[in-house]
Amino acid sequence: MAKRKIPTIVFVIILILSIIALDIARQVQFGGSKDDIILSVLYTSEKKGWINSIAPDFPEWFAERNPGQSVRLKFEVQGTRTSMLSILSGESKPTVWSPAAMVWVPLLDWAWNNKFGTQILDYGQVISLVASPIVIGTWQSYMEDNNFTSWSDLYDLADTELKLAHTSAQESNSGYMAVLLEITAASGKQPHEIELEDLQNTTIQSWLEKVESKAVLYGTSTGFLAKQAVQLGPSAINVMILYENLIIETAKDGEAFSKWGDNLVAVYPEEGTLWSDHPFAILNASWVTPEEQFAAQEFETFLLSKENQQQAVPFGFRPGNETLLNDTDIIQEMQEVFKPANGVAFNLTIPRFDVPTDGEILDRIPDLWLKTRATTLERVEGSEYWQIGMNPLIYFSLIFGTLTILVIVRKKRRVN
What we know:
The protein has helices spanning 8-30, 48-54, 58-65, 80-89, 104-116, 140-146, 153-157, 173-187, 196-200, 202-212, 222-232, 244-253, 255-260, 290-303, 306-312, 328-337, 359-372, 392-415; strands at 37-43, 71-77, 96-98, 127-128, 130-139, 164-167, 215-219, 239-243, 264-267, 275-276, 279-282, 318-319, 377-379, 385-388. With 416 residues, it is an alpha/beta fold.
């Protein structure tokens, strides 16, 4: 029996219906019509919970302020360094870029200028959305036994049973900033004072090598690193460099205390620290239209409003809008979150470092880490961490031992 051919017209109808269905699905996903301004936002996962909790209200808020206009949000979430490289390669073309920290803004602008000869953003117009300082995380018991208070103390702790963890300076913002802060301690300079000569200084490199030699884990995700510290316990990891908001998150979760009878706490280094301040950068790129720039400015205003800044506090973030720091409602909300019971402090008296603005220096930080990192840890492809690698001597010994056993067993079989 011959097969009946489906008429060409049927294929055409199916194709048209598919296109219509995809368009409807797209409109449902972003909540609007084809005439909407589509605001593309590329941001990092640390603030995803906060963004997702408030973003659905933005289209209505925008429409009320701008009658006759409508907007849709299109989000893309990537790691900070990955997102920067995506913009440089043209793979991502957002209107708004929001990395984890301001330190990446001059780095992107420097790299873009090197590649294309133009500026992709106005550094003076970039503002912070929410903020979380980089802290030295440790266990309550370890802090009481060692009483350390600074980045410089890490050097002395390296003479003891220090078991350090931070994320990869190549792949993660907190690891990148950890290495920058180690350079700060080793040089005696503030981050914005560091020069290329400091990165080549063998005394500074030796300082880093000593501290990094005590690393037992390099994660690719700061959130994963904090979870690993809780899972493995105080005997496996006793010092970690991470965000203040993750200390709060682990305290609220309660798993650390139930598992180990101990809690993670934040040490605020007395020299000062850098902040993961989640900048909001509107790009001056060829693909960004005036309408999209306007929508981005409106989204910035929306995110910095008192109501939305207040909603960031339960996620462990301090307001990026510093005009709200003296607001009674904000203070009351913060006092419920930033307290000793959560391993953190409400009032911070330590200096807040300015970030370097020299792109060439910033570009060299991962290279210095690769030169000074613990060589016993190796990157595991497809994994969230670097793990202890096998010493080549051990590896060849195992091979030789295995071959010897096989030869002996084979001789015995021949004898029998």
